[in-house]
Amino acid sequence: xxxxxxxxxxxxxxxxxxxxxxxxxxxxxxxxxxxxxxxxxxxxxxxxxxxxxxxxxxxxxxxxxxxxxxxxxxxxxxxxxxxxxxxxxxxxxxxxxxxxxxxxxxxxxxxxxxxxxxxxxxxxxxxxxxxxxxxxxxxxxxxxxxxxxxxxxxxxxxxxxxxxxxxxxxxxxxxxxxxxxxxxxxxxxxxxxxxxxxxxxxxxxxxxxxxxxxxxxxxxxxxxxxxxxxxxxxxxxxxxxxxxxxxxxxxxxxxxxxxxxxxxxxxxxxxxxxxxxxxxxxxxxxxxxxxxxxxxxxxxxxxxxxxxxxxxxxxxxxxxxxxxxxxxxxxxxxxxxxxxxxxxxxxxxxxxxxxxxxxxxxxxxxxxxxxxxxxxxxxxxxxxxxxxxxxxxxxxxxxxxxx
Length: 403
Description:
By secondary structure, the protein is α/β, with parallel strands linked by helices.
């Protein structure tokens, strides 16, 4: 069995490497939270030990929550949370921290604390933070370039994350972390796609510390449900995901007889559920068996993102059930969807192109099954837990050997 160097210079078998996983849960559940849990589960399945340090944004809502002004200070450095993390670190003596989202409750002070304690960090990048304060690299409807020196200012003026003030405050916090060298102990920035890696390298991140590791997946047998012919959107109901684009597309007379199911929560869900559409059904947030039944019954899954999303496991969920993916030719999805083999990569926001692709599968269920079967094979060959752990161990050996 291969070996890794621990933080005190000792050598330990890969089956005994210890991690503390740091994660601040969002107000609304989503793909990142599911991915964080899966990462921990698969690391433990691969022989590692993972101790969670999870907190939730809901802790700052309701009675007992810090005052709004104090929350601003705590977002940069929450001494109480950091003290708990330091105590946990003292008890567990991990080889590394695996860090995901840390704002607002855990705070940006995590990075300074890691420097003070001499703990190497493996930072998982689920979006474009800290390169982009909002995580989207967008200022309003405008996509920003990663080497733009004014990303923080442009996103602040656009109010890309909870309005101008909070966007600016978070942007300033990240800038201070970089200026003070708080990211020095981040030994690995793990991106979930090659496209994402290129973006961070263009943004000035050190190439020898940026790695790529696609999400893993617990591959299950397909459900027994039959194809009911509807098309499915599965994800957060927000503008960048292309939800409004789909709704406008389905208003076209040509799609009058085709059913669309929108599954998820978000700003647009509250708006759309108040309206009545003859060929659109909003079902809200789904999970578990309910989600699997919904995927099993669709003709194809739609991913019409209007921004270069790093990667989405929606493709995995579709492939697992033998369903093809129609996705925007943007971001990490270009690495998951093999155009013409497991689905279609389409020009984002082009209604005519999307309508043609939808009709192609609507009229040809056999083609849908063929593309979906190819997707299932791709899933089995590329993202099994064993394959993922092997790739992770290669990264861990490299970066912990330098710790």
